[in-house]
Structure formats: C-alpha cells, structure tokens
Amino acid sequence: MGLSNIPGEAPGQETADRFFHLLTDLSREVGKFRETAQKLDAFLLVVLGSLGASCGFLWAWESPANREQWIDRGIPPSEAENWKTYLPLFIGDLQPPPPQSGSPPLFFVRMTDTPSRTWAVPQADRISLVLYWGSGQQFQGFLGLGKMLRGGDYTAEDKELLLGLIYNFLFREEEPAVGSAEKSPRQDLDKAREEIRQLHRQMEKLDSDQQRRIFYLKTLYDISSELAAQRDPAKMLEEFLLMVMGTFGFEQGFVQAFDRASNRTWASHRGFGPRGPEPFSPEDLMGLARPEDLPGDIPSIKALLPSEVDRMAGFPSPFLKGLFYYFFLPEGVHGILGLGGKITSREINRAEQELLQTLLSHLLASLSKINYSEKVLRLNRNLEEKNTRLEQTLTELGSSRSRIEILEKAKAQIRSVIRRELERTRHVSLADVLFILVLGTLLGLIYNLANPGGIPVFSRAWIQDPVPRIAPAQAKVRYEAGTARFIDARPEHLYRQQRLPGAVNLPLTLFDFVYLMKLSQLPPDQELVVYGRNFSRRYDLEVGLKLKSKGHTRVAILTGDLTEWRRSGLPLEP
Amino acid sequence: MKSPIWIRLLTHPLVALAFRLYLGGLFVYASLYKINYTAEFAETIASYQLVPYWGVNLVAVILPWIELISGILLIIGIRTRTVSAVIGFLLILFTLGIIYNLALGSEISCGCFQSLDDPISGWTVFRDLVWLAMAVHVFFFDRSFHLERRYIPSIQEIKE
Predict the structure, then answer these.
(1) Looking at chain B from residue 59 to 88, which residues have their Cβ under 8 Å from any Cβ of chain A?
(2) What's the CA gap between A155 and A118, in Å, rounded?
(3) Does B37 touch chain A if contact means CB atoms closer than 8 Å?
(4) Whole domain around residue A554: which residue ranges?
C-alpha cells in the first residue's frame, strides 16, 4: 500500500491511543449498519464526536456505479447546496499528482484549512476543514468539518487521525467501504479483526515502551532522591555506581572523581574482585579531556573511547568493551565512569545511553551541590568564627577602655602626688622640719633613757624645792659671825672666776668626793648656806637637796645669788 | 647674657655638693660626741646661759640627734633645702650664742665638738659664719647627687 501521506514512524503514544479507541468505536458503530448511507452517517457522527467538531458533511461517490451519498450534520440546507454546487467544479484540480515510480498512487488526500476561500464557496463559513480523497476516478469524496467546539484550529495530529480513519473506513483498495455493501460481511469482519490484531500488537509495543519509560523515570527519580540525600562524595559515587549497574545490568563498574580545589580523590569499583583497578592519577584523569572540549563554566559529560581509557588504566580487556564517560565540573572536579560486562546479551540502546547520561548529569549536579554546600558551610563557619572574635574584641575593647580610664585617673593622681612631692623637695617644708624635730626628740629621749650615762631631763628638786632661803643680809650676819659655812655649788671654773671668800666649792659632779674630804666631819646641825645659780642652772638647789639628804638639818639657799650679795656690799674674791 | 666665670664657678652645683658633704659630715661628727656625753653637753649649754634651767637637759638630749639626722640627710641628699635651712638656723643660733657670751665676756668653751674645746672667740664666730655661708650656698645652688632625684627622670616620664 502506498500510504504516502501517513507518517511512517510510530505515532505518538497519545495519538496512538486515540486512534485505537476511535477505530474500536468506529468498528462498533459502523458495524451496526448494512446500508452505505447509514454507515457513512455513523462514520460522520463518530468523527464529529471524537474530534469535537461543531458540524460537518460527507460526500462520497463511486465512479463506475455512479452512486453518490451526501450526509450532513449541523449545516443549513442552503450552505449544503452551495457546497454541492461548487465542490465538483474543482475536482479536476484535485487529481492525483503525476506518478513518480510508474503507477499512480492508489490513495491520496488533499486538504485545505480555508475551504470557503480556496474554492470560493459562497456563504460557507461554518466549514473550516475540507479533505478530498480519491483513487483515480473510482472512489472519491469530500469530508468537511466545522469549527472545533473547544475553539482553535485542527492540529496536525487531528488531521493525521482523520487521514487514518478515512483510509481505514472509507477507502479500500480491494473493497471500498462504501462500495462493498454487497461483499460478504464475514470477509469484512476478518479484515477488521486482522487490523485490530495489528493495532493491538502496535499497542503492546507502545505499552512496553511506555513501561520502559516509566522504569527509566522511576530510576531517574530513585537515583535523584538517593543522591540528594547524600552528603559524602565517596558514598555518593559508590551508591551511584551500584544503582547504575543494577539499572542497566552491568557486571563491572568503576567510578572516580578528583577535586582539584581540595586535592582529594574518591574512587569506587564493583565486580573487579577485592583489589579492583588502580585509580587514575589526577594528571591522567585531567588529561582525558582536552581543554577545548570543556566549556569551562558548565558541567559537561563526554563519552570516551575504550582506546582513550586503555592508555592509562589496567582494566581487564572484556571491561574495555563497555562504556566510558568523562565528566567535569567547573568547580574543578574531574571524573570518570566506566561500565562493562553486560549481564544480558542485549546491547545498551540509544535511549538507555541517553538515560545514563541524564543520570550522570544528576550525579554532577549533586556533586556540585555538595561542593557548594561545603563551601557555604565553610564560609559560614568562617563568618561565625570572625563574629566570635569580633565580639571578643569588642568586649576586650570595652574593658580596656574602662581599664584605661582607671589608669588615667590613677596616673593623674600619681602625677599630682609626684608634683606635690617634687615641689616639696624644692622648697623648705614645715612638715619636713617638724619631722626632723619629732624624730630627733624621739630618738634622743629613747637613747637617753636606754643609755647608762643618761641625764635626767627634769629634776625633782624644781618641784619639791624644800630648802629654805636666806637673805643676803642675814647671811652677812652669819658670815661675819662665822657661824655658817658657805658652800659654792657651781662648777669649778666658775668658782675660780669669782667666789665668796672662804666658801667651799662643792660642784654637783664631784659632790661625793668633795663632801667626804671637806664636809663630812661637820655636825649635822651646822648651818650651811648654799649659793650658785644662773639662768640655766639651779646648782644651789641640787646641792642643797643633796646636803639635806646627807642629814644636815640647817641648810639654806642664799637668795639672789652672788649678784645680790655683791649689791649688798659684801666681799667677793678674787 | 652669661654671668662671669668666677660667678659660674662659685655657684657651680659641684661646689654646692662639696659644701653639702662637708657640712653633713661636720654635723654628724659633732653630734656623735654630744650624744655619747650628754651630761657634759648639758653643762656646755648651761654655760651659754641662753636656755632656761628647766630646758637645758632636754635640749642636750635632743639637739645632738637633730644634728645627726640633719647631717645624714644632707649627705645622702634628701630634702636638702629643708635640711640646709635647719642647719643654717642652728648655726645662726650657735653664732648668736657665742656673740652673746663674747659680749658678756664669759670665757666659756665653745663645746661645738667636745666639752674641752678652745674658749669662744672671734675666730669661732668667723668659723660659724663660714659654715652658715656654706649652708646658704647649699640652699641655693645644690642640685646634684640627691637620693630623691635619682628617680626624677622616671618621675618626669610619668608626669608626661
């Protein structure tokens, strides 16, 4: 059959579904009737309903029998008349194209989206799509469809569907549907069954395709969610390898990635035994792709030839028949994925390769995400550390400031004290004088007290003063009568300077000696007149007291001393 | 305008230092005997007849110690201005006492260093006046080798 206008490729899944359902509907509806008019009517109704067209007409005729049928739905009679009048005028234009390979095509279709304009049919705006089909002169017709109820134009898919339906139901090479009214219904049924069987096979194939796609999607989803949960690149690579091997049925797998920024390598392998292949050196890994192959700023994947890999890795030769991919992240991650040893004999097909690459790009995205999140974490940690340090510094600054304030105050105080002290060293200070005086007094008194040769600071004689006095006049009487002995109490050098004639010199310092020598023989009631005092000394008093203590009862002190004596005209020597 | 060299020499701090050390040593030396022989020193004071009888012994006990303390402070250089003033004041007192007793004609011993010194005379007065002049010189010009001022550079730093 020369179905030049029906696409050779398998129709889209949805179209195929629709087509299948329509065919089933049509078979059921059309099969109910025997009359051609009824069949055509049922056909038009199903087409209108399934495409959602507002109105339509079907005009078919068979040339040899010259039978024609006109069916219309939702078109006013005047418009229907116009179509009937004008359409035949153009049949000549709608003839099949010139033959290219000998015989003319058995079936062809002409279609126009603007029928009323193309063919200048007056008052025929309701119809927006007209198809003409034909096979030479034998069986031909027009199918006109009104505007879509949902609005918009007929899609290419709709048109394809229409073509399929027309071909299957209105046109048959051997038995045109319209013209086969008198053929055996049994044969029709067999034909229809065969067609349906074929369609069913097609459907099954589509279904398995769909299943596979669902499986791919599920794989994609599983791997994506698995990768999304991973935080450790090594584990991520390992899981990825496992899942990919499981999904595509590989026995051996090898994956390695090298991060140039942190100079780390992660590698994982399965199915090579405990030792596995040696990981690539970073230089070898990076050498797998030429710099011009890498776009630089976007992740990229490149399929490698086994020969490219063989140069470096000690992979077993069966493994080298497998698939190798080089991958790269602009953050500086280079890696390789190798899969080999198919479990099933079936080679991996194009769709699976595409899926594999998609999965690989998911892996790259996840690796990149880890890289970024590590970077963000690192930056965050840095930021936190810096924050802590900043806070610490601020606190220290605060305390330093208060410490500085305290120190400043202390400094000011010390400065003023020092200034005061310095001033004192430059000037005569009363406090210093007092200090020297007090210290001298204290040290002197203490030393005098402790010293065996110390002197009494105060004399009791000054307070007691029990010695009676004798005036110069009375003393003169005693002197002249010679009844009293006169005692000079002053030190010897003063005695030698001037003295009362006949007086005994009895200085306090030599008292005991002189007393023993000169006065000890005197009777206790011998009258003794003591003299000798000045502004600074009370010699008479001291000696008088001593004499009294020696038992002399009649001791008296000459008042006025030698001065008074002399004034009274009494003699002095020398 | 610079002062003449002889004035600069005379008022040189080192001269003042020499005077200071001499005076300090003199007072320390004089005080030692008086401290050990208080009774004799009391007699000397009494002989001047300037101190009332009730104060003679007290002065004899205290005065040598004041001389000693002043002498030591002057040597080591603490409060030299105050100390030189104190010493100057004491010298004035001593000189006045000598002059007074010379005027009275009393032939007493000076007692400046020992109780058996030479009797007081015009020479004694002159000697005391020379010492007084030294004290005045120290008061005005002394500024070196002070124990206190050893710390002055650092004190100046603190002041800044």
Answers:
(1) 60-66, 68-70, 73, 79, 81-83, 85-86
(2) 19
(3) yes
(4) 464-567
